[in-house]
Amino acid sequence: MKHNVKITMGILLFFMATTLKIYSQPIQIDVDKPTTKIQPTMWGIFFEDINFAADGGLYAELVKNRSFEFAKPQMGWEVEKTNPDSFHFIITNRGTENPQNPRYASVKLNDNKSSLSLINEGFRGMGVKMSNTYHFSILASLTKGSDIALNVSLLDSNGEDIGSTTVDIQGEEWKKYEVSFVCSKTDPKAKLKLFFEGKGMVSFDMVSLFPNDTWKNRKGGLRADLVQKLADLNPGFFRFPGGCIVEGSDLDNRYQWKKTVGNVEDRTMIVNRWNTQFDHRPAPDYFQSFGLGFYEYFLLSEDIGAEPLPILNCGMACQFNTAEVVPVDELEPYVQDALDLIEFANGSTDTKWGKLRAEMGHPEPFNMKYIGVGNEQWGPQYFERYAIFEKAIMEKYPEISIISTTGPFPDDPFFKYAQDELQKYKAPIVDEHYYRAPQWFFDNATRYDNYDRNSYKIFAGEYAAQSVEVCSPDNTNNWQCALSEAAFMTGLERNADVVYMCSYAPLFAHVEGWQWRPDLIWFDNLNSLATPNYYVQQLFGVNSGTDLLSTKLENKDVIGQEGLFASSVWDADSKEVIIKVVNNNKEAKSTTLVLNSAKRFSSKAEMTVIGSTDLDVVNTLENPKNIVPVTKEIKVSGKQIIIDLDPYSFSVIRVKQK
Fold first, then answer.
1. 297 near 241, Cβ under 8 Å?
2. Which of 70, 169, 255, 555 has the most crowded CB, counting CB atoms within 10 A?
3. Which of 192, 211, 230 is the last residue of a domain?
4. What's the CA gap between 60 and 222, in Å, rounded?
5. pLDDT tier at 7, thresholds 50, 70, 90
6. What's the pLDDT at 85?
């Protein structure tokens, strides 16, 4: 009797345990019948200089307003007036003599007891590290008969000296002086102090301070931790320089690539168009030095293995601002800029722009394959200009693929007008943007399922789920947004025969200097963090595969049935099946992955999961690992894999062929 009770209790406990788990129907993956090739450019990155992404961010320069070219020339600088009668501090504008870099500063000291200190605040402070070497440089000239010493030092947030050196300025000729020193303390809010002492007059420009530990230790280079995060996404392409930066608020303020190459001191600074764009986040100290210019962009694309995708102005300023256009009969300089950029990227060293590329350090071509005409313009005025660009580019460079646009929205009347126009032009690849609520992303996982397969290919050039609403300063990079993007991306991947490129936007944001949110990567002066959205993008990027596989639940694509979204690929290089599954349920689910194949598979698979029952969870600099992917090993039984899907989770399963 007791024996029977034990058996009954065991059956009851087993029944209770199994009924607490919700089971899904099996998901069938046809491994041996790939449906289309996955483009190597499928998952990429979008860069725009918004949120202090370049100066104060990716570009590792620590000095703000280093050449005194801001609208207020002394912005970022503080003059210490210990004895005001003994010195003069002057800003000279030599506009006609040097229009690229017209301003420079001068200090005049009246007697041998005179001194003057200039302090630069950096970009919300300067992030410096103990034991790191810092490279200081300055262009300077002494007037005849002057005898002035320059001491350079880093000050910590308490004003204490944490590293210093001297610069011996000699002669009337403008020369570049370079010295290095080691910092004795880590501080996110350091400042740079220039201490002038002696008698006479010294003039100076291009005051610069760079850490030694830049990406690949390049002199005057990029911030290593931020570049590493880009490389870790395994991007197939790199879009640059934007974004609305391309257009400018007016045409005078548009991005002009030719002003971003050559010697750094000869690049023309302009105000950043996000300077006063939003009343809730004004940034009066936001300018573009173009230290991160088109050469640095091409070099970085090469470094991280991404195809460069430059976007150029098409003779139209931002239509949300001035809607200024250049007349069609005056468009030639804009078109020539596009042709010359292709020459700069790909031309031989015998050409004008190919020679400049070689002089900058890269004689080999960058082999650029794509170019974008306009950012997110709309209406007839865009297409009459696009037609002129297309004709000129195709006549000279027929091998280049041109990216066009449907405007800023995915479903308004201008979008529908653009669709019709682009069919006439037989556009190869078209840029679409989606900034919508998370539910929109879940609902639009089917967006391209019934798309005309004979039409143009899609570049999902900017997308990000908005937790509150577009342009809201209260948007967050929470898990609900990231999960909805994962579901949407399974739909993009499932339609890889028409979707060729995809990128989240914006990419970077300084925690103290942002204008727009959400953003993929956040940083301060010393640290950076990956958002949940970053990890979703990364899991697609490093698991992109080479061939799309049919993935079905009850003979239908997995698009929300039982709260599941899924897509699968075959990776011909690693000989693996890669399955991506989103569980948009508050309960855990168990399902079986069935690999329909004549192949044999390993008895173990790798499963990477990111998820949380708290849909509002975010990562912060204080707690950067609130939600991160976790990888574990799971069993494979022949051609079947039983997996448990956590509530509100995104899982990637990799199974190797034997």
1. yes
2. 255
3. 211
4. 5
5. very low
6. 67
Dist CA 627 CA 640 (whole Å): 29
Which residue in 583, 571, 574, 578 sits closest to 595, CA to CA?
Answer: 578
Task: Please state the domain count of the chain.
Answer: 3
d(CA 502, CA 44): 6
User: What backbone torsions phi and psi does residue 623 show, to the nearest 5 degrees?
Assistant: -135, 75
Average pLDDT over residues 246-268: 96
Q: Which of 69, 324, 376, 390 is catalytic?
A: 376
- Taking the CA atoms of residue 169, residue 174, residue 179 and residue 185 in that order, the dihedral angle to the nearest 10 degrees is 90
- In this structure, the chain runs to a length of 658
Per-residue burial over 374-396, b = 16 or more CB atoms within 10 Å of its CB, e = otherwise = bbbbbeebbbebbebbbebbeee
Do both 599 and 639 map to the same domain?
yes
Active site residue 421: no
What's the CA gap between 123 and 3, in Å, rounded? 76
Chain segment 120-148, per-residue pLDDT in tens: 999 999 999 999 999 999 999 999 999 99
- Please indicate, yes or no, whether the overall pTM of this predicted structure exceeds 0.90: yes
φ, ψ for residue 343, nearest 5 deg: -65, -40
The CATH number of the domain where 113 resides is what?
2.60.120.260
Tell whether 559 and 537 lie within a shared domain: no
Within a 10 A sphere around the Cβ of 171, how many other Cβ atoms? 11
CATH number of the domain bearing residue 259: 3.20.20.80
Sheet holding 528-530, edge to edge: 508-510, 521-523, 528-530
56 and 34 in a common domain: no
